[in-house]
TrEMBL record:
InterPro entries attached to this UniProt entry: CheY-like_superfamily, LytR-like, LytTR_DNA-bd_dom, Sig_transdc_resp-reg_receiver
Keyword set includes DNA-binding: yes
PANTHER family linked to this entry: STAGE 0 SPORULATION PROTEIN A HOMOLOG (PTHR37299:SF1), TRANSCRIPTIONAL REGULATOR-RELATED (PTHR37299)
Keywords, sorted A to Z: DNA-binding, Phosphoprotein
Domain of life: Bacteria
Molecular function terms from GO: DNA binding; phosphorelay response regulator activity
Pfam families, alphabetized: LytTR, Response_reg
Residues with the 4-aspartylphosphate modification: 58
Keyword DNA-binding: yes
Record-annotated Response regulatory domain positions: 7-118
Protein name, as recorded: LytTR family DNA-binding domain-containing protein
Organism the protein comes from: Aequorivita flava
């Protein structure tokens, strides 16, 4: 299934704040930065000719505020407000904001906000919600929906397993054998007694390890041939 990519823009009069958001966007596999503006007037002109799905928007800016910008543009994208003050939070949600982030932005809050935007986008565009594309797991006494295209790998932790997604890690009371049976075999592979990996996330491998971005997972000797065959099958699918 094709990965969902949200085209996004930043509007903030602080150069340092824009740089920090740029870095977070560049590290996220589902975001593509297509516009960066230092005030709402620039943004209004730029957005008139650029379609975006998500905007990271400061509120207090000279001449036009973030709210003024939203009032002026016709094609309204999803909005994540980014501000140093909490006093605008109530008004922000009158604009159907996805989230309201305080400066300086914590990475986990950024990831959670983007995850909401991706989910909203999929619901609106009816993407990625077939029965086979997510599973429900119970973590911290709550049922959680985990989308398979966001699941990177599963790690054994004694009587539990840890699910590592693009956004978070969840610890679930289960066995590796149970998860191996639950996940589609054409997309996930047991590469080691303690690891199951999403084949779409594999970037490199050698005789001992598999690389998924910054994660290096062990590869069992007797699984290498199976990995090569499985990766070839995903490329030919």
């Amino acid at each position: 299934m094709e990965k969902t990519i949200l085209k996004c823009a930043i509007v903030d009069d602080s150069t340092l704040q824009r740089l920090s958001i740029v870095k977070l966007i560049q590290m996220h596999p589902s975001l593509e930065l297509v516009g960066e503006y230092k005030n709402a007037i620039e943004a209004k002109m730029g957005l008139a000719s650029t379609e975006i799905d998500l905007i990271f928007l400061d509120i207090e800016m000279p001449i036009l505020s973030g709210f003024d910008l939203l009032d002026d543009i016709q094609r309204k994208p999803q909005v994540i407000f980014v501000t140093g003050k909490t006093k605008y939070a109530f008004k922000a949600f009158d604009y159907d904001a996805v989230d309201y982030l305080r400066k300086p932005i914590a990475k986990d809050r950024f990831l959670n906000a983007v995850h909401k935007a991706i989910t909203n986008y999929k619901l609106k565009n009816e993407e990625g919600f077939d029965d086979e594309d997510f599973i429900f797991v119970k973590s911290n006494l709550k049922k959680r929906k985990v989308f398979l295209n966001e699941l990177r790998y599963i790690e054994a932790l004694g009587d539990y397993v840890k699910l590592v997604t693009e956004h978070e890690s969840l610890v679930v009371l289960s066995t590796m054998k149970a998860f191996e049976a639950l996940l589609p075999s054409d997309r996930f592979l047991r590469i080691h007694k303690s690891y199951i990996v999403n084949l779409d996330k594999v970037q490199r491998y050698n005789s001992k390890t598999i690389e998924l971005d910054k994660d290096h997972l062990p590869l069992s000797r007797n699984r290498k041939a199976e990995l090569i065959e499985a990766l070839a099958a995903t490329q030919n699918a």
